[in-house]
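I need you to check the entry underneath: sequence plus fold tokens. Let me know what the token row says about the fold.

>
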Amino acid sequence: MSPAHFRARLPAPNLLVWLVFGVLAILCLILRDDEKWLVKYPKDWMLPIEAGLEFLMDWFTANFKPFFRLISDVLEWPMRGLQALLQASPWPVTIAIVAIIAYAAQGWRLAAFCIASLFYMMIVGYWDESMSTLALVGMSVPLSLMIGFVMGLLGFQFRWARRVIEPTLDVMQTVPTFAYLIPILILFGIGPVVGMVASAVYASPPMVRNLMLGLQRVPDNVIESGQMSGCSAFQLLFMVRIPAATHTIMIGVNQTIMAALAMVIIAAIIGGFADIGWEVLSTMRKAQTGQSLLAGLVIVLIAMMMDRISRGFAERTGEIHVRRSGNYIARHPWLSSMATAIVAGTLLSWAVPVFSAYPEAWIIYPAEDLNQAVSWFTRNFFDTTDAIKTYTLYFFMLPMKAGLERIARPGSWGFEMTTMASVIYWVILVAIGGLAARLGGWRSVVAVALLGILFYYGASGTPWPVFVVAVTLIALQVGGWKVALFAFLGMAFMLLSGAWPRAMLSFYLTATSVIICFVAGGALGIWAAQNDRVSAVLRPINDTLQTMPLFVFLIPVVMVFLVGDFSALLAIIMYAIVPAIRYTEHGIRQVDPVAIEAARMMGCTERQILWKVRLPLAIPEIMVGLNQVVMFALAMLVIAALVGTKGLGQWVYDSLTNARFGQGVIAGGSMALMAMIADRIIQSWAASKKRDLGLST
């Protein structure tokens, strides 16, 4: 046998690495019961990271706390003033101004929607709370835009700044929302300024990214025209580049406004401002379902109004405007209309007291009726909802969490996990692996083996060396040594800081929700891509789900299923399923028509075209959707801590309530690392798939 022939018979290097991993995994699983350190990372091996962070924060607070409290006092004055102004303004004035702005953005339909939304807030008695929320947003958005504008300009002008800003933005957009509040709460103290500052910081990344992107995409001929006109560097930036990038910048403004609103609602957990977010949170804590539904709808309406108005102005940035002639009123009709509304509304409120403050006698607050309706529903459909919850928990969620070996019982699964049952399980897994080998090669076998181990031992029972090595190998083979090193160091941080057990609980809940979102959302996306009517129905639903602040998703699930992991799972699915639907539909619809026509000429049926042409070519886009599903699921995970989940989200929440900075940084950092590891792996895989398909530019 020749050496070349002998080398050809050897396993591929990647396969050989996985075979070695398989031996390691088997050894760890065999020794798991005797060597307890394989499952529970020893405390003696951990580093005092939390204590070190607490020491640094104590030193910083002792030296700089008075400065930040002074800033807090300075910022609170204009915020309280704006709150008082909005609450004291006659309601016809506020409604008229919002309607005029909405009409200028998108026309009469949006204006009518905004009028109806504001009337709802007033009729149900949440006008003052809504104005308090608008005051917080009104203060935080300008701050956020200023931060984003300065950072975006620095990142565009200086390469060294961009290298610092981009990874910083990655961290900022993956750190859970509650983690933002911890250092700000310690430095600024309890009060509405915490929510405003947290919102300003949290909402700045979209502005930074869109500003840098917009300035980079300005056509060269536009820049050359400015240079030929004799523009200085300052004039070229502010009179050529920025106006040419207005559309992209306005999209960033839209995203910043929505992020600021979301954070303002979340920051209501601190209290002190009597806004609508606090109303939702307090009624949820008291299990007042009707009240929380009414207040939650206010949040949804505010979010939809802000989204539609800001998006409308963003879409109109490319329009050509003819300069109006005439006096100031004729040249500025919108400003003139608002001034007229302010004067007329104020005079009307002086003449007719009803227009000054909406009478309490006119308030319609059907909270008790809603409570009775919810009670009727839960009482009459308890058997159905309880069966759904029980079956999902026992046959999917709990095995992923604690492992089939500990969950399988005669009362639930119908059998005890004896030695014979374990042997049967592994035999079935080997058979599935053999089928996977025939259909997808050895990589499919590896995937089946990893899922089989996870389902049998659970996230909390799988030895940490097996998990760490598996993720590192996946990162190595998909993204190279840099991605593998980042993944390994990220997991090492979780182990050394003591966050690993909670990280595994977060991984289990994230993984189960991502699997459901990817399967169900992918199916809906395929259906929408094949049927325009389905797409038309799903589009407004997706828009609404992506507009709603995270708190709102908890209300219906807690109302029906109470608190617990299952309610958290449903809330995560409701929020995270949208990217799976949208990216799957978009990917399939964007497939090159030439490839589809070639398949038809070869005699392929529509089903064959879907599975053999459309889906394979759409996989890179679908994987981007999977990446977004993971990001959305982790973002919702920390909010799900409010309904009783365990894991990193609960750890972040505990650190907020107890003002434990070190614990909050470790928990928030671990969640950010989980998101960034998943992001790097999925993006690397999608990029390699694009190259394989010849789709990369």
About this structure: Residues 3-11 have pLDDT under 50 and may be disordered.
